[in-house]
Amino acid sequence: MSPTIAVLALQGAFIEHEQRLQSLGCTTIELRQAADLARPFDGLVLPGGESTVQAKLLHDLGMFEPLRQRIAEGLPALGTCAGLILLADHFRTLPVTVRRNAYGRQLGSFHAEGRWEDEAVPLTFIRAPRIEATGPGVEPLVTLNDAPVAVRHRNQIAAAFHPELDDDNRLYEALLAPLKRAY
Ligand code: GLN
């Protein structure tokens, strides 16, 4: 048995996450409507895209509160870019202050090299939010110029960048680590 990871598939960059999760041995399901929430899954990925659109669709489809509750109850979750904004500003399950589109007025897309402890991590930013402040119990996982760009808080991992676009699995492994023990 492998863990089943649900990927929010309303809008944005969800297919790349599914492919990466499958390459790591996971089964993936897509969350497109409230009925999909009744299917069993062990973890959740909230992809990049447009957080205002995603939040509106979640409300309109009656998926917002059930998902928020599952995350608040401890469902392992990885939010990337817009997914970070959902966790911090909409679900409010992640005690982090973010500023949207904070990396300049141009398209705001760039590559950089961050640090995970002493190791380099490739980072791709696309109109990314900046993590401006972190609350209690928030651990930085990846930093760029000493500022956190990926964090962990209990069951939640969130990144300002797009790990699905670079060849580095560490954030996925961090999501899956507690699940793999159960299988
Ligand atoms: N700018 C988007 C937002 O505010 C996030 C961009 C992304 O997910 N790549 O929701």
TrEMBL record:
What's an example GO BP annotation here? pyridoxine metabolic process
Instruction: Mention any one GO cellular component term assigned to this protein in its UniProt record.
Output: cytosol
Q: Which Pfam families match?
A: SNO
Task: Note the superkingdom of the native organism.
Answer: Bacteria
Care to name a GO molecular-function term for this sequence? Answer: glutaminase activity
Q: Which family does it belong to?
A: Belongs to the glutaminase PdxT/SNO family.
What is the official name of this protein in its record?
A: glutaminase
Q: Which organism is it from?
A: Adlercreutzia hattorii
